Amino acid sequence: MFKRIELNTLTVWKFVFESADHTIEIPKGAMLLSVHEQLETICLWALVDPNVGKESRRFLTIGTGHTVPKELSVNFIGSLGMRNWQFVFHIFEVLSPKEVTQ
After folding, report:
1. pLDDT tens readout for residues 8-62
2. Are residues 74 and 68 in contact, defined by beta-carbon separation less than 8 angstroms?
3. Half-sphere exposure of residue 39, counting CA atoms within 13 Å on the CB side?
4. Distances (CA, A) of 75 to 18, 51, 90, 98
5. CA 36 to chain centre
6. Torsion of the alpha carbons at 13, 18, 23 and 24, rounded to the nearest 10
7. Which residue, among 58, 65, 47, has the nearest Cα to 91 in the 3D structure?
8. 14, HSE (Cβ side, Cα atoms, 13 Å)
């Protein structure tokens, strides 16, 4: 099912990840578009409505071969390579208990 989007009110924003466990303040209902390395920094791009209130969303950066904590429910966002793909990282959004479906 596709969600109709009115693009005249939406903007693409970039968020820079400063740590492996990173929380960002992002407009409610933002659509996550992609994650990539930019100038040796992990960045996330999202389609947002800048006119709505913000919410906190938490993300984890996990290197290949490292474990995702079992006690967390997560949603995979994407993978990226750094330093010419010498290091590969996988980005997950940590879901709140109300977002977890059984």
Report:
1. 789 999 999 999 999 999 999 999 999 999 998 999 999 999 999 999 999 999 9
2. yes
3. 2
4. 20, 26, 11, 14
5. 10
6. -20
7. 58
8. 8
